[in-house]
Amino acid sequence: MVSPTGPTPGDWLQRYCPLIDGQFVFLNPLSWETHLLTESAVLVLREAAASIEENRFDAFLDEVAEAGGWPPGLEFLARSLTTLVDGEQEAGQ
Amino acid sequence: MTTPLYRLLDVGAARIAVASSLEAFHRHLDAVYPHQEVVDGAAFADVRMSLRLESRWRLRTRQVELWSEGQRAFEPYPARSALPLFEWGGNWLLAQRLNAYLLLHAGVVARDDQALILPAEPGSGKSTLTCALHLAGWRFLSDEFGVVDPENDEVLPMLKPAALKNQSIEVIGARPGAVIGPVFPKTRKGDVAHFVPDRPSFEARHRRARPRLIVFPRYQSGAPLRSRRIPAAQAALRVGLNSFNYQVLGPVGFGATTRLAQSVRAHELVYGDLDEAVAHIETLFRDAG
Fold first, then answer.
1. DSSP B80
2. HSE value, Cβ hemisphere, 13 Å, CA-based, for B264
């Protein structure tokens, strides 16, 4: 279940990962640090967000591993999106 | 126990109250805040602090301590450097408290209430450039703090004197119209003196400005002038990195920096000649409209 009070991971990407002058700027929901991202990195984060919302993030992690692993630094950002869902779901994964 | 007598300074975006029995400190304060009216010291202040002499027995090496809300946040300074301690300590306290605003480490000047924001790391020549622009006719809004209201993205003045260090004291002091307070030699940051903004800037300390241009300055001795446009996404990132409270504000700071970077142009400016830098900024500002 996605937290009823805060934005979902997908909402977060909508609001805090805008495209500005050809580059994406992403606000990490956990550390509140900001990162410049390429379009392909944002696509991966969007897939991660969808998997979190559908409660299949572990399966998504397996898919990424099978596909050759994470691009540098991106796993940390994808995992930061899991903090937007409640602890019950995280514990169940 | 008597209640200390506070002096209240209204610097625009904030009010600072200070109490001290050090006569020399008050003389120095008068010199670098010459336009301040007398305000009731018991009125609201964002930051309230006391400068107290340490031991009464160490006559030759007496130290002064800065206290605020029952805490001594800094190591004591030599008593003769009470003003630099007040300025640096006060800035630090303001950076902790004013979280209704995005606080940039930036100089800000304006023409016709349109702001030029100069975010920079320490040692980049930001203060020198801010003072030179002010002496060239720009309204002085602030040297240390670029105060951005995230509600409407306007910039508020924080009209404190600009701390000049070492060679900058002479460079700015030699310019027509420069008013500089006493020099404090051999502080922890070298020789320090405070540049005094003019009265019209002081009187406009409650008048906000709209951002029009961002310039990230970097002084490099002997370097030819180099200027390049910064893409907006990188500008947003760099503005955030040059902020005191960006990470404290989280989404609010993110929104303010991304809107700022999308609404105004940003340039990086490396300069070795101050007059050349001022002239180039005038051109950038004019073209930014």
1. G
2. 23
Asked if the structure places residue A1 within a domain, the reply is no
Compare all CA atoms of chain A with the CA of B237 and give the residue at the minimum distance: A34
The answer to whether the CB atoms of B237 and A27 lie below 8 A apart is no
SS3 B101: coil
Mutate to test the interface with A, among B230, B247, B252 (most CBs of A within 10 A): B247
Model confidence pLDDT, tens digit, residues B93-136: 999 999 999 999 999 999 999 999 999 999 899 999 999 999 99
A23 close contact with B: CB closer than 8 A: yes
pLDDT tens by residue, A28-74: 999 999 999 999 999 999 999 999 999 999 999 999 999 999 988 99
A18 → closest Cβ in B250, B251, B258? B258
Crossing angle of helices A74-81/A39-53, nearest 10°?
30
In a domain, A68, yes or no: yes
Domain that holds residue B281: 102-287
Residues 27 through 56 of chain A touching chain B, CB cutoff 8 Å: 27, 31-34, 36
Assigned domain for B124 exists: yes
Q: Is residue A2 part of a domain?
A: no
pTM of the full predicted structure?
0.92
> Is the same domain home to B69 and B165?
no
